[in-house]
Amino acid sequence: MHEAIDQAHTLRAFPWPHLLMDDFLPPEILRQCLLEIDGDRYDFEIEPRGTGRIEFSLLQSKTLWRAIYSKKTISVLGSAFRVKVTLNKHNMLQLRRMTPETPDFPLHSDFVSGDNTIASFLYLSPGWSTRCGGYFHLFKSNKHSAPALSIEPRQNRFLAFRTRPSHWHSVQKVCDWERLSVLALWDIETCEQKVVSP
Questions:
Q1: Alpha-carbon distance 69 to 64, whole Å?
Q2: What DSSP line would sit under 107-144, residue for residue?
Q3: How does pLDDT run across 65-88, given as a tens digit for each residue?
Q4: pTM
């Protein structure tokens, strides 16, 4: 994996803590992953969520599985969030899709009572430009109508955040473009790591 992944990463604090990394996969690994996805047949399930919907399928690319579900990814998340994580085996790794027919995904938080998790996305689709839309919007609260920050879904960008009730976000619909991403849900151990001062 990219050498930058071996380094410690700092969470971006605004408007709430999140990890954002570009060039997450080496170019040759990314190419292989895209070839495998293009060669596989995906029957996307559709799950309505309010005015939005989720289009998802179990990820089939072995190369991408190994790249995301790896010691290095776990180390990156552990270093950034100061916790120990394991892959949520119920969620596994999902290939997510948005097409121009997919509506905006409304303002929400991913918090589930009793769960302590981190959600991560790796954006895969090439050719993004501002006219494509598909922004991941972060909000200060559910009382704000305008996002505090909008993240572009650029290819090979990795986004991760804790699924806390205050982490409000939405996803803008895409236009004349298909957005593919991989969602992973990571379970956090109950005892957070203590930061040891040098």
A1: 8
A2: EE----TT--EEEEEEE--S---GGGB--EEEES-TT-
A3: 999 999 999 999 999 999 999 999
A4: 0.91
What is the residue extent of each domain of the chain?
19-188
Tokens of 30: 């990314």
Mean pLDDT score across all residues of the chain: 92
The residue type at 129: S
CATH topology of domain 19-188: Jelly Rolls (2.60.120)
Tokens representing 176 are: 């004349």
Residues 6+ apart with CB under 8 A from 62: 36
CA of 165: how far to CAs of 17, 23, 24, 78, 175, in Å? 13, 29, 27, 21, 30
DSSP letter for 68, please: H
Tens-digit pLDDT profile for residues 114-153: 999 999 999 999 999 999 999 999 999 999 999 999 999 9
Give the integer Cα–Cα distance in Å for 53 and 48. 4
Query: Looking at the predicted structure, is the pLDDT value of residue 196 above 50?
Result: no
C-beta separation of 39 from 59 below 8 A: no
